[in-house]
Amino acid sequence: MKTIGYAAHSADAKLVPYHFERRELRLNDVAIDIRYCGVCHSDLHTVNGDWGPQPYPVVPGHEIVGVVSAVGPEVKHYKVGDRVAVGCMVDSCQECDQCHNHEEQYCRNGMTPTYGAPDRLSGEITQGGYSKHIVVREEFVLRIPDSLDLSRSAPILCAGITTFSPLRTWNVGEGTRVGVIGLGGLGHMAVKLAAAMGAEVTVISRSTKKEAEAKASGARGLLASTDQAAMQAAANTFDLIIDTVPVKHDLNLYVPLLDVDGTLVIVGQIGPMEEPMTMPLVFGRRRVAGSLIGGIAETQEVLDFCAEHQIYPECQMIKMDEINDAFEHLAQGDFAHRIVIDMASLSVD
Ligand SMILES: [Zn+2]
Ligand SMILES: [Zn+2]
Fold first, then answer.
1. Which residues, chain by chain, have CB under 5 Å from ion ligand 1?
2. How far apart are CA 15 and CA 330, in angstroms?
3. pLDDT tens per residue across span 282-301
4. Of the chain's two ends, which shows fewer C-beta atoms within 10 Å, N or C?
5. Are residues 88 and 184 in the same domain?
6. How far is the CA of 260 from the centre of ligand 1 (A)?
7. What DSSP character marks residue 344?
8. Spatial distance between the Cα atoms of 170 and 263, rounded to a whole number of angstroms
9. Residue 113 Cα, ligand 2 centroid: separation in angstroms?
10. pLDDT in tens, 137-148
């Protein structure tokens, strides 16, 4: 199937229109007309080569929503016209303990990311959602519930599941004291999801500038990490802290905020860490943990949860040819929330 996307051809290059082929449908494949694709910080890092050499050209994008246009003969759960989604991975071994446990993101044999990785069967490099079409095996296709607005759902596929999974893993519920560091794409979803689970949510930010926004998302308040007195007063007051800051920073500042048995979970890629101070960990049995997206079943769960609670990411819609500008703003960190590409702005010829 001929399609078009926007690809980077080298680490320093801007994204440009790129004609390429999607594979012929295999027996269990679903072909999707992409309607919207979210723009994730990892898209930027990947095309810039920040996380290592890339198999250019790379078409990024792993917050994909659209409509089924064709199905392979053995597809059981989807039909033409269904509203569907694809997230950060498109395959895994399906045989190991992690895959059997619905944690394909931790597949022992390595899951296949949605873009920039060899397909398990053909070795062809996967290409992501900044394009008109995608072909994905049925097991990695998600369903968009009827009551979710397609144009506002894309960021649930990465920003949503990345924060939902640790909230579930650490059993967040009524009254759990949750801190969310950073109020960007991931952070504001963490606040909305945790608040809908009944948690008492506090945003932890460098200044109080985003206080109104934090409260509008469902937080009870905002703790400024530069306010030493406030930070001291907040010691031992959190059960779980979700750290969404996508750049290098010192975790030692935040660990004392955890109560006994509290956990700080890193969900961003922050590179090498400052040396952790052991005393606050030992005195309080506190933990620093990490978490990567979520499995396919859990990704369906967060889509259903967002439908049930009518939770939407804050989206700013752009046209496909505005992507290079959007990347620049994203690199500066001056985008509140999530950019979403309207794929109707990209024509096939
Ligand atoms: Zn992402
Ligand atoms: Zn596996």
1. 40, 42, 158
2. 14
3. 999 999 999 999 999 999 99
4. C
5. no
6. 31
7. G
8. 8
9. 13
10. 999 999 999 999
Q: Where are the alpha helices (DSSP H) in 207-273?
A: 211-217, 228-233
Structure confidence by residue, pLDDT tens digits, 114-156: 999 999 999 999 999 999 999 999 999 999 999 999 999 999 9
Cα gap 300→86, rounded to integer Å: 10
Q: Which residues pair with 290 in a beta bridge?
A: 266
Check whether the bond before 57 is cis (ω within 30° of 0). Answer: yes
Tokens for 316, please give them: 């700013």
Q: Is residue 302 part of a domain?
A: no
Global pTM value: 0.96
- Residue 296 lies inside a defined structural domain of this protein: no
Tokens of 300: 């369906």
The CA 294 to ligand 2 mean position distance, Å, reads 14
Residue 282 phi/psi, 5° resolution? Answer: -70, -45
Give the ligand whose atoms come closest to the C-alpha of residue 96. Answer: 2
Tokens 């059993």 identify what position?
171
d(CA 66, CA 59): 17
Same domain, 141 and 26: yes
**Same structural domain, 176 and 215:** yes
Amino acid at 291: S
Distance 128 CA to ligand 2 centre (A): 21
Classify residue 45 as exposed, middle or buried by CB count within 10 Å of its CB (0-12, 13-18, 19+): middle
Residues 178 and 104 in one domain: no
Kindly report the CATH number assigned to the domain that includes residue 131. Answer: 3.90.180.10
Concatenated DSSP letters for 305-318? Answer: HHHHHT----EEEE
- The DSSP code for 218 is T
In which residue are the tokens 């006994």 written?
A: 260
Note the ligand closest to the C-alpha atom of 94: 2
* pLDDT number for residue 334: 65
Cα of 97 vs centre of ligand 2, distance in Å, is: 7
Tell me how far the alpha carbon of residue 188 lies from the centroid of ligand 1, in angstroms. 14
Integer-rounded Cα radius of gyration of the chain = 20
